[in-house]
From TrEMBL:
GO CC annotation: cytoplasm; membrane
This protein's name: Scavenger receptor class B member 1
Transmembrane domains' residue ranges: 20-44
Keywords: Glycoprotein, Membrane, Transmembrane, Transmembrane helix
Keyword Translocase: no
Family note: Belongs to the CD36 family.
Organism this protein belongs to: Onchocerca flexuosa
One of the record's GO molecular function terms: scavenger receptor activity
Localization, UniProt: Membrane
């Protein structure tokens, strides 16, 4: 064989080897490609679960301790415009003043870490933004509101001791907006009444606070909370509340079943990854003394990020829904009829979870989802709408990152007839007063992720 022939044979051998190597490499690439199709989602999901574990010194822990969110609150105040006519049986006519706009500074004070848990105190500070508020929105503006103490006395006015000591109490008070919200006001008659023998016993039994302010508790440090820090395999969700104020269950006198007293969900700061449309998202809301749930409403796009929108629906405050009767209190109050055990649909009685059992009632703004008779019993409110008045949570479903939440609610005072009420109380004819729910304020708070965090 010539030298040239040997070279050709050698080239053919190299070519065959190269072809075989290329074939093997191709097969391996196809194999690894197929493998990655199945493995990549697992690896990504595993990485997401690891990032949702906020144990001490983790990346998530830093963002959780130093939340990159913007907070803004708009508060509308209601003043009674016809207090004397209400005593004659007229519907309350409300004057809405607002919005009072506040910037809200928030943070968390970490108290310590335990076994996959962390104890902390949230704190917040409301800062009045005069420029963004309405022109007539002065914190010193006087408003007329129902007198909680008078209502308490009136409900048990058949008690001769109560009737004799409440001679100076008035059904309505004039207070400043600042005092009604954050500073607290002193009932001008309560201090003197509670020093009278026998009356002091009633005051102590009610545990009446020295000052009454409807957002007094929201400015400053909140109760101590313990939350789960999660686990890397996702078996324990980060952010789930384990206790509130040292309690695993809310006090027995607050609600009427163990299920109603459960502390479900997070404080709103963290949610699990891989959220499905069929999920219910739980949020513990200490201001209304219970956990609430939000259900899927729609898909939408938030700054180019595919997201889910969850909202509070009407089943939350409907006493006809099984289980919701545990949030009722049969205190002998009369609204539509004497045999009712619960307040009408759309209302939540908060009296049992605040000192002194004040007749405070929670609702959504403009009585969204409430019985039509409630809406028609008050003059001066706007038409309610799900878009503007519901509690709404917007979330990136894969990572469980909170994008934006709208916290909307209304605080009201119940003026209700009672089986222990007399018609002539302290010179006031109570026989003509109609049972009604009088709005005090509506808050519209939005919490939105910072631009830098959203880009991540």
């Amino acid at each position: 064989m010539t030298t040239e022939g040997k070279k050709c044979k050698l080239r053919e051998r190299y070519c065959r080897i190269a072809q075989i190597l290329l074939l093997v490499a191709g097969i391996l690439l196809i194999f690894f490609g197929i493998l990655m199709v199945f493995l990549a989602p697992y690896l990504i999901n595993s990485k997401i679960r690891q990032k949702k574990n906020f144990a001490q010194d983790s990346e998530l822990n830093y963002y959780w301790e130093n939340p990159d969110y913007k907070y803004r609150s708009e508060i509308f105040i209601y003043s009674v415009n016809n207090s004397h006519q209400i005593l004659s049986g007229n519907k309350p006519e409300m004057v809405q003043i607002g919005p009072y706009v506040f910037g809200v500074q928030v943070g968390r004070n970490i108290l310590g870490y335990g076994n996959r848990s962390v104890k902390y105190q949230s704190f917040q500070s409301f800062i009045f933004d005069r420029n963004d508020s309405c022109e007539e929105c002065s914190m010193h503006r006087k408003i007329i509101i129902p007198n909680i103490i008078f209502q308490k006395f009136a409900e048990i006015s058949s008690n001769p001791v109560v009737s004799s000591i409440a001679h100076s109490s008035q059904p309505f008070l004039k207070v400043s907006v600042d005092d009604a919200l954050f500073k607290g006001y002193v009932d001008p008659h309560l201090a003197s009444v509670c020093t009278i023998p026998l009356a002091d016993i009633i005051c102590k039994s009610w545990n009446v606070p020295d000052k009454i302010g409807f957002l007094l508790h929201k400015n400053g440090a909140q109760r101590v909370v313990e939350a789960s820090t999660g686990s890397e395999d996702g078996s324990i969700e980060a952010g789930e509340l384990l206790s509130w104020d040292g309690l695993n269950l809310l006090p027995e006198n607050w609600w009427n079943s163990k299920h109603a007293r459960k502390i479900n969900g997070s404080d709103g700061g963290l949610y699990k990854p891989f959220i499905k449309k069929t999920d219910k998202l739980y949020l513990f809301a200490p201001d209304i003394c219970r956990s609430i749930h939000l259900t899927f409403a729609e898909e939408f796009v938030y700054k180019d990020v595919p997201a889910y929108r969850f909202i509070v629906k009407e089943d939350l405050l409907d006493p006809a829904v099984p289980g919701n009767e545990a949030f009722c209190h049969d205190d002998g109050r009369i609204f539509f009829s004497e045999d009712e055990k619960c307040l009408p649909k759309g209302l939540l009685d908060l009296s049992h979870c605040y000192n002194g059992k004040p007749p405070i009632v929670f609702s959504l703004p403009n009585f969204l989802y409430a019985d039509e008779r409630i809406k028609k019993s008050v003059i001066g409110l706007n038409e309610s709408s799900v878009e503007h008045d519901s509690i709404t949570l917007e979330i990136e479903p894969r990572t469980g990152t909170l994008l934006r939440i709208y916290i909307r609610y209304q605080i009201n005072i119940a003026i209700l007839k009672s089986q222990k009420m007399i018609n002539d109380f302290n010179g006031t004819d109570l026989s003509k007063i109609r049972s009604t729910i009088v709005p005090l304020l509506a808050e519209y708070q939005v919490v939105e992720i910072g631009d830098g965090k959203a880009d991540e």
